[in-house]
Amino acid sequence: MENSDDFMAKIVALCKRRGFIFQSSEMYGGINGFWDYGPIGVALKRAVEQTWWKYMVEDRDNVEGLDSTIICHPMVWQASGHLANFADEMTDCTVCKKRFRVDQMDDPTTCPACGAKAMTPPRNFNLMMKTFVGPVFDEEHAAYLRAETCQPIFVDFNTIRIASRQKLPFGIAQTGKSFRNEINPRNFTFRSREFTQMEMEFFCHEDESMKWFDYWHEQRWNFYTKILGISEDKLRIHWHDKLAHYAKKALDIEFLYPFGWNEVEGVHHRGTWDMSQHAAYSKQEQDCRYFDQERNATYYPTVVETSCGLDRICLLLICNAYDEDTAATQKEGMDEDARVVLHFAPRIAPVQVAVLPLSKKLEEPATDLFRKIRGSFRAQYDVTGSIGKRYRRQDEIGTPFCVTFDFDSLNDNAVTVRDRDAMTQERVPVAELAQWLRNKIDK
Ligand code: ATP
User: Fold this and answer.
1) What's residue 326's pLDDT?
2) Residue of 82, 195, 199, 235 to mutate, ligand 1, most atoms within 8 A of C-beta
3) CB within 8 Å of 200: residues ≥ 6 apart
């Protein structure tokens, strides 16, 4: 079994080579904890985000969408407790000057980097990123980049409820950037300082909250196993044994990353904490409580939250899809050659179909076909290099179907479709190609 550092080094190299993900501001030496998604990475990220949005919002009658600002009124973060409590304990090594999160150390008295027993006493370090709004840079104008996407959902709850004419129980979802000044960004994009969250807050009556918790637990598990196609033995549930005082239940969905089991999503029972906190700080009680006609009662909604990181899902998908095997080659003196392949589920593959003319002479009819295909699928056109090289490139970005347009295609109006996983080739009439692909991709 390969060591996990070597495996991650391969993933990081592939991500850069093929334009998935690479360091932000690389020509200036990079900036720790910030990552750019290149052409293939952004296609993957958007595909996953759209899949989540469809599954969580568009396919449901009882979940509404929101796209709020990143900077909110600073009082939002006072009410949520982030300004006072959103902190990790950190400690510095006085010898090598490295900084660590105390909860991630086996022995907080010994430096994990240099082994010196010369650590500073633990100190609290607030993770909120600060900025200033307006022309004056003083405390009165201080503001914060949101540390989670859910707080604006609580603040906008009543406006959204009225506008959408929803009754409890219902949910509000949003996807977007969050920022945390993580002490120790690491494991590639797993722990970043700028990242995308996908969160849904479900508002219900306290008596029904445990039922909804179980429901969302199941729905979110199904998202990974059935929609993204992750095998169950690479996922597990970690139940929190230490709960926040207001919470009744909390769990993490963990994935077996190359660097170990780690959280990709949390499902949390948040009680009435959020809505009552915002009522207390804003004094806008009416926006935080709900009049339930059926029960003839007014109350703070109880919240069940599902919260995941898009970057962590993309990393999970790349690690899960990565494989090395052998494929037929036309290289001199060789029948087979090693190939790197990403076995993405076709519905989230960044490129779903590649159109490859066998010869430059076939460019015209092949580009015609490509133009038709790209309207319905994420498609790429590639005419450079031998067909073997082009297959290898597509394998490395996980393209499930390569369509080769050859000289026979001019006569029989058919193309050869090569399947990435089975490596079989099938002749498909051009007139049936779109439907053929649709059946395979939506499967
Ligand atoms: P961790 O314990 O790993 O720091 P957390 O419990 O603080 O995570 P939450 O506050 O529950 O995480 O955030 C919800 C989700 O947001 C996480 O499950 C994760 O997918 C994502 N997330 C949180 N912090 C980061 C980060 N620094 N980089 C990338 N994704 C993150």
Assistant:
1) 79
2) 195
3) 56, 63, 171, 172, 173, 216, 305, 306, 307
